[in-house]
Design goal:
By secondary structure, this protein is an alpha+beta fold. 44% of the residues lie in helices and 17% in strands. Helix 2 (118-130) packs across helix 5 (169-189) and helix 4 (146-166) packs antiparallel against helix 5 (169-189).
Length: 217
């Protein structure tokens, strides 16, 4: 892939360019900040987001105080070269208020075309653990404890195997969905997030790439 020369980027009259920071795994927008050329060069060199504070008139390395560093995966410019999208793997909350993202105040949502996400399902499941709801099957599982959860995971694994042997696609999808739900419950029980799983899978992909490169040498 040919990388864009940063000399082609268009900074505004104050020497700044807006940067939309996005979680590399969940694709959630974490924050919007500004960079000048120096902070962008530092970000690329250190592979950590460094921004320019318009209020304090100085550079700031995200995480330098809080420890919530943002490790850069990629930086992409838009078609006019005057704004950036930065994908990161974060060490902690992106917002200074301690929330996962600075964007946590819904203004409008079209329920007719709302998109399902595994992260949203996980949040609902975790909510049933943190704040049990009477009559909720999920809260019931957490109340019964890890042995009950593990038993259900084992049962659903068996159901997936049986469905797989049967060869009925709809049945396989149904049983895998049941298994996925119960695995998410197990994850929530131990505080394992979807990003933890994605990070593990991503690390294996990196290892696979290195192995392939070594074989070609």
């Amino acid at each position: 892939m040919k990388l864009l020369d940063i000399d082609k980027l268009v900074f505004d009259k104050d020497g700044l360019i807006p940067a939309v920071v996005q979680d590399a795994y969940s694709k959630k927008v974490l924050t919007v900040a500004y960079m000048n050329r120096e902070s962008l060069e530092i970000s690329i060199k250190r592979r950590l987001t460094c921004f320019y504070s318009r209020s304090r008139k100085k550079l700031w390395l995200k995480g330098e105080t809080s420890g919530n560093f943002q490790h850069i995966v990629s930086i992409t410019a838009d078609c006019d070269f005057d704004s950036l999208v930065i994908e990161v793997v974060k060490d902690g909350p992106a917002c200074h208020l301690g929330t996962d993202s600075c964007f946590s105040n819904p203004v409008y949502e079209n329920e007719d075309i709302g998109e399902f996400s595994m992260e949203e399902l996980y949040d609902v499941i975790k909510g049933r653990k943190d704040e049990p709801k009477e009559g909720s099957y999920t809260s019931y599982l957490f109340d019964k404890g890890v042995d009950k959860i593990l038993k259900k995971v084992g049962e659903e694994c068996t159901e997936v195997v049986i469905a797989g042997k049967g060869g009925d696609k709809e049945e396989i999808v149904f049983e895998i969905s049941d298994l996925t739900y119960h695995v998410l419950v197990l994850m929530a029980e131990y505080g394992i997030t979807i990003n933890d799983i994605k990070a593990q899978l991503a690390s294996r992909r990196v290892v696979d790439k290195k192995v392939k490169q070594e074989r070609l040498q």
